[in-house]
Amino acid sequence: MPGHDTYQRLITLLDTTRTPYRLIDHEPEGTTDSVSALRGHPAAHAAKCIILRVKTDRRTTRHVLAVVPGDRRVDLDAVRSLFNARYVGFSDAATAERLAHAVPGTVLPFAFDPDLELVADPEVVARPQLYFNAARLDRSVAISGADYAALAQPRIEPIAGPRVGDIQEGVSA
Known about the structure:
Layout: H1 2-16, E1 22-25, H2 32-39, E2 47-55, E3 61-69, E4 72-74, H3 76-82, E5 87-90, H4 93-100, E6 116-120, H5 122-126, E7 130-133, E8 139-143, H6 145-152, E9 155-156, E10 160-163, H7 164-172
Parallel strand pairs: 3-6, 6-9
Antiparallel strand pairs: 1-8, 2-3, 2-5, 4-10, 7-8
């Protein structure tokens, strides 16, 4: 079970660095909106973690773990520009699971694999309290965005698309 080892690695990292965190047990859930409701916070306070396939040229493919606020989508055009890439798309499930060492819905906002590049939106690290599934569907972690940034050391770039409400307002305007 890949998630168990990843969970233990996360907890060991938090404990050995003496990073303040809180564990939250809840019903098994992997979608951002549903698990945010179970944890009792707005989806915007969650870290949505998406593994992307980035082709910089015909022969070179990189994998990027994009972390955005839970109420946002990853802006694929922003990621494409960031990496000067020809193509950016979502990674297939098998590759994502292999690189994240976790099943879909439990991907951590940490890149524990050397083949995975970590990019986080500035809004993620600015959160006083950031929530994410802890490589398990039934347990989450709450940590400050600043502590997350210090531990994970992501590349911080604006990669989040508009909020869902902003998209709807733009369509109806």
